[in-house]
Amino acid sequence: xxxxxxxxxxxxxxxxxxxxxxxxxxxxxxxxxxxxxxxxxxxxxxxxxxxxxxxxxxxxxxxxxxxxxxxxxxxxxxxxxxxxxxxxxxxxxxxxxxxxxxxxxxxxxxxxxxxxxxxxxxxxxxxxxxxxxxxxxxxxxxxxxxxxxxxxxxxxxxxxxxxxxxxxxxxxxxxxxxxxxxxxxxxxxxxxxxxxxxxxxxxxxxxxxxxxxxxxxxxxxxxxxxxxxxxxxxxxxxxxxxxxxxxxxxxxxxxxxxxxxxxxxxxxxxxxxxxxxxxxxxxxxxxxxxxxxxxxxxxxxxxxx
Length: 305
Known about the structure:
Strand order of the largest sheet: 3-2-4-1-5-6-7
Number of strands: 12
Helix content: 25-40%
Shape: globular
Distance between the termini: 67 Å
Mean pLDDT: 88
Radius of gyration: 19 Å
């Protein structure tokens, strides 16, 4: 009896702002012959990355408002995989399903999902990738257990943004990674530029239970404005962002045009883009810093008043 080949799955992890979306864009650019689907997980209620990736021409689905690997969102993930993705595959065979997890997601439950819900009948995990930004990696690793789980689960670790850190910092990050996952492959890169290959199926997947919906220690705020923001005042707001704000991303419409914003603990990019119907932002902090998050959002809203 002939068994149809299973659909390769690439799971992309990495903390907020490490470069996961950049990796997916590079994948679409460097493998234009691949028939792929992107499944994007946003911890916030807006799908900024989903909109960005859809612009590559690759079919893109989004799961928003939590982690794929928590009890409250796993059902959405399973529905998309078992219904929409499989329908696409039957119409034209997929070369890969690329899953970009939320930066706050712990991927240890991927094996449990594959086993308990029968995904292994049609899908096979071929790579688990963790994208790492080295500049503040060691400090984050110390305070955020989810990063350790991402490192330990991955068969490929991409030390990205090597242009933002000195050699000693990069080497220390690589050494710490090796201690936690001695069998992984490590690549150093800028802007996720490297040659990517699918490997054979991973025979041993992490197999932890799904997390509970209240287990994630991060707070998020989504903000939308239809009114253009004053450009110079918006730049001042960006310059004054406190370090407790781990991530800001979105589209901003100012009186000097439209821009795409990517802001992390170690970088900031404001790139001109087509005018948008409205500005929309996602801001993320640790739960302990929620008062700072609320104050930062309040200051942003004041720009539009």
